[in-house]
């Protein structure tokens, strides 16, 4: 069984309950370094057109009814182009629900 860290990250933050001895901020930076850029993940001009058309038809957040600004993939596509372009897998979200509530839901899975 892996040990849980109870140490201090290189930046000085105390790290507890983590398997790796780096704080949340540094772990995120490590993940971002390995992640392809948005264009390589499919978010190009074709996506921007499709996104705009979808938001024109579905202008309200699916969670709260406020104006939607993000087209979210209900099930993460993880690079699968069929899932990426499946409009049945899209939902309109406001920035708050996309950046907080939806992220929490995906992390808990």
Task: Walk me through this protein's architecture.
This protein has 109 residues and is an alpha+beta fold. It has 2 domains: 5-34, no CATH class; 45-108, no CATH class. The chain is built from 4 helices and 4 strands. The protein has a two-stranded antiparallel ribbon with strand order 1-2.
Q: Report the portion of residues in β strands.
A: 15-25%
Sequence stretches where pLDDT stays below 50 over 5 or more residues: none
Q: Element order, helices and strands? A: EEHHEHEH
Alpha-beta content class: alpha+beta
Helix content: 25-40%
Cα gyration radius (Å): 18 Å
List key phrases describing it.
alpha+beta, elongated, two-stranded antiparallel ribbon, 109 residues, 16% strand, two-stranded antiparallel sheet, 2 domains, 4 helices
SSE layout:
Blueprint: E1 5-8, E2 14-18, H1 24-34, H2 45-57, E3 70-73, H3 81-85, E4 90-93, H4 95-108
Antiparallel strand pairs: 1-2, 3-4
Summarize the structure in short.
With 109 residues, this protein is of the alpha+beta class. Helix content is 39%, strand content 16%.
